[in-house]
C-alpha cells in the first residue's frame, strides 16, 4: 500500500489539524474504520459530537495530510500513532489526546528504562556545563543511560552532545515540524543523533512553524516519554521548570541541582520546594536513576 494513502495514518494525522481525540476515542475511530471502511472524507461523521463541526469545516484536511505525508516519506521520516506497535504506552496514559508522532532515526523504545530527560536554561552558567561534563557524562556512559531533551541551545544541546560523545542514544523532541526545524543550529546534530542510535521526534505536521504554544506541547511530550527528569538550571518562570513540574504531576522521578538563594536560577529552589530530589554528585545521580517511576 502507498503509505501516504494509508487510511489509518491519515486518521492519525487528524492531530495535525487540531482535532484532538482522547486515546480511547482514537482507538474507537480506528475500529470503526476497520469495520465500516468509510470514506476518509466522511471521517467527521464518526467523531465525538463536539468535534464533528470542527472537522466538517475542513473538508480537504486529508488532502493536505497526503501532501505532507508524501514529503515526509521522501525524507525517510517514520510515523507512529496509538494502536501502532512503536507508540509509547506512556503517551496513552499521560496525555489527553493522541498525537501522531513523526521521527527520524530509531523507533521509540517502550522498554527503555531509565529514560532521562535533561532540561535547563538556554543561557546556562559555565559551572553548570562543567558539572554536566564532569558528573552527568560519566554516569550516562557507565550506566548506558538514554537521554531525551528538546534540542534548544544551552542545556538541551549540551545534553545531546554528551550523549553523542559517550556513544549513548539521545532523543531530541523539536517544537516544530521537520520543514522548519528550530533552532537552526540544531540541524547540525541530526546525523550524529541518528548515528548514536537515537531519534529526532516531532508531534507537529512538517509545515508547522514555531509558535509559543508549541513549546508547551513539546514539554508535555518530553515529560511523558521520560522516566526521570533532571533540571540542571532554570529560572522561576521557564519552560525548564514547567517540564520538571509536569514530571512531578505525572509521577516521574524528578531531580535538580541546588542553587544559591540569590542565583538567577531560582527555579531549582522552587523545584526542590515542590518535592524534587536534590542531586550533586555522581553517586547521587547513579542511585537516583536506579529508581524507576514505571
Main sheet strand line-up: 1-2-6-5-4-3-7-8-9
Shape: elongated
Instruction: Count every beta strand, where a strand is a DSSP E run of 2 or more residues.
Output: 9
Tally of distinct domains: 2
CATH structural class of the largest domain:
Alpha Beta
Could you name the CATH topology of the largest domain?
Answer: Rossmann fold
Q: Which sheet architecture does the biggest sheet show?
A: 9 strands, mixed
Helix proportion of residues, in percent? 40-55%
Secondary structural class: alpha/beta
State Rg.
Answer: 20 Å
* Ends apart, CA distance between termini: 37 Å
User: Quick check: average pLDDT?
Assistant: 93
CATH architecture field of the largest domain? 3-Layer(aba) Sandwich
Strand content: 5-15%
SSE string, helix = H, strand = E? HHHHEHEEHEHEHEHEHEHEH
Low-confidence residue ranges: none
Number of helices, counting only DSSP H or I runs of 4 residues or more:
12
In a few lines, what is going on in this structure?
The chain is an alpha/beta fold.
Structural features, described:
By secondary structure, the protein is an alpha/beta fold. It has 2 domains: 3-85, no CATH class; 115-289, Rossmann fold (3-Layer(aba) Sandwich). The protein is built from 12 helices and 9 strands. It has helices at residues 7-12, 23-36, 49-56, 61-74, 89-94, 126-143, 155-165, 190-195, 212-225, 239-249, 267-274, 282-289; strands at 78-80, 101-105, 115-119, 146-149, 170-173, 199-202, 228-231, 253-256, 277-278. It has a 9-stranded mixed β-sheet, with helices on both faces. The relative contact order is 0.12. The model has no long low-confidence stretch (mean pLDDT 93).
Amino acid at each position: 500500500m502507498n503509505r501516504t494513502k494509508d487510511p489509518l495514518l491519515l486518521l492519525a494525522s487528524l492531530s495535525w489539524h487540531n482535532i484532538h481525540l482522547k486515546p480511547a476515542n482514537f482507538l474507537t475511530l480506528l475500529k470503526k474504520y476497520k469495520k465500516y471502511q468509510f470514506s476518509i472524507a466522511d471521517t467527521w461523521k464518526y467523531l465525538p459530537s463536539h468535534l464533528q463541526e470542527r472537522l466538517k469545516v475542513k473538508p480537504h484536511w486529508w488532502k493536505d495530510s497526503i501532501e505532507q505525508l508524501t514529503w515526509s516519506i521522501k525524507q525517510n521520516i517514520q510515523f507512529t500513532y496509538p494502536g501502532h506497535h512503536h507508540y509509547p504506552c506512556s503517551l496513552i496514559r499521560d496525555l489527553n489526546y493522541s498525537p501522531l508522532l513523526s521521527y527520524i532515526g530509531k523507533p521509540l523504545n517502550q522498554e527503555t528504562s531509565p529514560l532521562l530527560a535533561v532540561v535547563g536554561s538556554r543561557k546556562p552558567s559555565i559551572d553548570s556545563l562543567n558539572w554536566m561534563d564532569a558528573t552527568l557524562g560519566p554516569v550516562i556512559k557507565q550506566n548506558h543511560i538514554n537521554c531525551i531533551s528538546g534540542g534548544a541551545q544551552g542545556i538541551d544541546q549540551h545534553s545531546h552532545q554528551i550523549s553523542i560523545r559517550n556513544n549513548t542514544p539521545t532523543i531530541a523532541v523539536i517544537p516544530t515540524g521537520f520543514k522548519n526545524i528550530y533552532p537552526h543550529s540544531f540541524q547540525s546534530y541530526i546525523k550524529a543523533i541518528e548515528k548514536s542510535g537515537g531519534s529526532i521526534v516531532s508531534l507537529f505536521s512538517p509545515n508547522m512553524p514555531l509558535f509559543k504554544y508549541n513549546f508547551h506541547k513539546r514539554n508535555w511530550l518530553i515529560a511523558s516519554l521520560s522516566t526521570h527528569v533532571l533540571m540542571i538550571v532554570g529560572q522561576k518562570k521557564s519552560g525548564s521548570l514547567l517540564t520538571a513540574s509536569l514530571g512531578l504531576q505525572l509521577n516521574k522521578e524528578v531531580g535538580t541541582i541546588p542553587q544559591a538563594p540569590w542565583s538567577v536560577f531560582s527555579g531549582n529552589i522552587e523545584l526542590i520546594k515542590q518535592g524534587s530530589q536534590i542531586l550533586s554528585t555522581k553517586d547521587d545521580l547513579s542511585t537516583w536513576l536506579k529508581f524507576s517511576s514505571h
